[in-house]
Write a structure and sequence with these properties.
Strand order of the largest sheet: 1-7-6-4-5
Shape: globular
Bound molecules: coenzyme A
Radius of gyration: 19 Å
CATH topology of the largest domain: Peroxisomal Thiolase, Chain A, domain 1
CATH superfamily of the largest domain: Thiolase/Chalcone synthase
């Protein structure tokens, strides 16, 4: 398969580090050096499903195909206001498609996992065109009283349209269960039979454990893929990494011994938008005309689970 169109949408409300320090015991001088984040886009009056539909329409427009040409829609989402129906079904209706659709929850690695599912459908000859939409509102998962977590995230939606081709050179997925390091719990509807104690918790994170996992998993996935494909890091034109923390990106960059110019970033202005992070960055680079035909691109992401994944693709 190959990517033929991209699209993305951000909420209009911008929240700077200085705005956070008006109600939290934090500061730009703490946040920026540790994360690389200056501001993030946060949902206010928008609905995530509308943003997802708009990102999908932009990607279809960019690809030059119609919603009726789609054979499958995969939506990556951790949480949104609807528990059911799936966000992919909402997107299907919103863009006027009629194909089957599927939601996945692979946290921040969702775009890579979605590419892997799409690739299997292409390989089986079941599809000609697939839409992937990653839409996330992590700012609704965090407590805005918890400075450890809420300063890191922003919302957004990113989409990509795929068609038949041989531009995906390889995909590597990994998972290592760690349910106490990055998680959120919610209490479901009560029943007369529930006897266990239950409580809801906002997104909880052991930051340093996540940091170590992120560096190890992403570096490992990328190295495994490049070694297996016999591609030297020097031959890769672009590394599009999950935009969680500039220090994580810089550490992976140092491990790969590649120049910073090959690592486009938007973490400074977006924060971590979970699985939307990679396709938003892909769309921004695409629309700036940064990619040339034949460029080799590595994408890599990690997240709650823990899970991670990387892909090598030719533009
Ligand atoms: C969260 C993270 C930025 C913290 O950086 P760090 O270098 O581990 O933090 P430090 O050890 O320098 O600082 C921790 C201290 O700062 C405090 N602190 C935490 N958040 C703060 C904030 N927003 N403002 C001010 N102080 C803060 C803590 O309370 C702690 O104080 P203590 O030592 O008195 O207990 C870093 O661990 C990280 O980015 N981890 C990965 C997170 C991530 O990517 N999550 C999403 C994955 S998909």
């Amino acid at each position: 398969m190959k990517i033929i169109g991209t699209g993305s949408v951000l909420p209009k409300q911008i929240v700077t580090n200085d705005m956070l320090s008006e109600f939290l015991d934090t500061s730009d001088s703490w946040i920026y050096p540790r994360t690389g984040i200056k501001y993030r886009h946060v949902i206010s009056d928008e609905n995530l499903e509308d943003m997802a539909v708009e990102a999908a329409k932009k990607a279809l427009d960019n690809a030059g195909i119609q919603a009726s040409d789609l054979d499958y829609i995969i939506c990556s989402n951790v949480v949104n206001e609807y528990i059911t129906p799936s966000l992919s079904c909402i997107i299907q209706g919103g863009i006027g498609a009629t194909c089957p659709c599927l939601d996945i929850n692979c946290a921040c690695a969702g775009f890579i996992y979605a590419l892997d599912i799409a690739e299997s459908h292409f390989k089986a000859g079941r599809v000609k065109n697939v839409l992937i939409v990653c839409a996330e509102e992590p700012t609704r998962m965090t407590s805005w009283k918890d400075r450890n977590v809420c300063v890191l995230f922003g919302d957004g939606a990113g989409a990509a349209v795929l068609t038949e081709g041989d531009n995906i050179k390889g995909i590597k997925l990994s998972a290592a269960s760690a349910t106490d390091k990055l998680y959120q719990k919610r209490v479901l509807e009560p029943t007369p039979y529930i006897t266990k104690e239950e409580h809801s918790e906002s997104l909880q994170m052991r930051g340093q454990d996540v940091f170590k996992f992120a560096v190890k998993a992403s570096s490992g996935d990328i190295k495994y893929l490049l070694d297996n494909l016999n591609i030297a890091p020097d031959s890769v034109n672009w590394f599009l990494l999950h935009q969680a923390n500039i220090r994580i990106i810089n550490t992976i960059q140092a491990f790969l011994e590649q120049p910073a110019e090959k690592f486009p970033t938007n973490v400074e202005s977006h924060g971590n938008s979970s699985s939307a992070s990679c396709p938003i960055l892909l769309d921004e680079c695409n629309r700036k005309g940064m990619f040339k035909k034949g460029d080799l691109i590595v994408m890599s992401a990690f997240g709650a689970g823990f899970i991670s994944g990387a892909v090598v693709l030719e533009w």
